[in-house]
Amino acid sequence: MPLLPVILAAFFMYGFDGNVVNVALPAIRGDLGAGQAALELVVAGYVFSYATGLVIGGRLGDILGHRRMFLTGMAAFTAASVLCGLAQSPTQLVLARLVQGLSAAAMVPQVLALITTALPAADRPRALAWFGVTGGLSGVCGQLLGGVLLDGDLFGLGWRAVFLVNLPVGLAVLAVAAAVLPRTDTGRRPALDGIGALAVSGSLALALVPLVLGREAGWPLWAWAMLAAAVPAFLAALRRERRLAARGGQPLLDPQLLRGPVFRTGLAVNAAFMAYFAGFVFVLALTLQTGFGYSPLRSGLVFTPMAVLAMAGSLTGKRLLPRYGLRVPVAGGAVTALSLLVTTLGLRTTGADHALPWLLTALALMGVGNGLVLPSLIGAPMAGITPERAGTASGTLSTTQQFAAVTGVAALGGTYFTVLDGHGYATAAAAATWLALGAVLVMIGLTVRLGRVTAAAVRNER
After folding, report:
1. Which of 87, 109, 361, 373 is the most exposed place for a label (fewest CB within 10 A)?
2. Architecture of the domain spanning 255-462
3. What's 1-131+153-180's CATH class?
4. Where's the Major facilitator superfamily (MFS) profile domain (predicted)?
5. How many whole angstroms separate alpha carbon 109 and alpha carbon 353?
6. Rounded CA gap, 100 and 73, in Å?
């Protein structure tokens, strides 16, 4: 069996579990008696532990081998999913979700690293296209399959089925992965930079906690204080990593990676995309369910055209990239911008009663646009990464994406709830969509710059 379906199955499981829990929250509240704070932590704990552990997970893959870390992360993720499904109290569920997020942080960076190191160069564009498609599908399937599992009440398990379904899937992935994954251990055994790990994770936590919990808490003083401290703390951690590298040590964050203009610009493109997409999907899903009264299953069905056309667009974009280069994602960004304009027009002119045809049209356009962007979204920054840095680069890229997604949800969600106080759901969603459009325009500009720095890097290598 080929390597790619196995590692993408693990990536799908991570994304699925990040989204399916939103559908299950009302049932969890009723069964476990969870309060609002506990429900927020069920969602936020997964995001927090995943995002803060990504860089360490990627670095451990470089040190211990990507195969070993993938199998370890997959086994732990499966076990944590079972603990989630067996939880008897909100506290047990929150703790299990924290472990699940940490396990995903060990597993997910190895997916990109294995694509980079274990597949032939000619196969990587196709693999990266499917990687992007898998990420999009996992979110939509979290809504759709979550609704199916809850409505079907599989074996009378109720909400627990959305977690326990990972047991047979995880065991199957483990069995096949153990047989097909190559040993990519470089033979190097550098020590993990423990102080750097604490410094980087701590600075990331300073930003993540208020971004995830600040809105629901009403943005108290502690949230702003943590955000203010996050930037200097991260810069101090980065300076330490640079000094360690200058002394010949092995830093957690490789300064050479961050100095590379192609990788650095690629990170910025990914950040703009994830901020727009995560924020927009959050706002639209909330509007459909809370504002328009859709069930979780019906809401998920609205997103289906986007998922299907994103797959088709991604496969088309992969074929166009060798001929047209980064003009393909620029064109995709333009189509995505058009989709957001259609969304805004539909929401502002028709309101909730007649917005669905406009939204379906907009989401179809968005699927095509996102699909054209996705192959280069991962491929461009990971191009030229050496095998010994693949895990670190993958962890850094995934961390950037996760932080951008959380920031996008905070920014667009904040705009949405601010406007909602004095206006209707459709008007609030339209206001947030304008902010998403701004992020897409930034992404287009950064993609143009990425093309220039990539061309300059190629000229310098000649």
Report:
1. 361
2. Up-down Bundle (1.20)
3. mainly alpha
4. 3-462
5. 43
6. 9
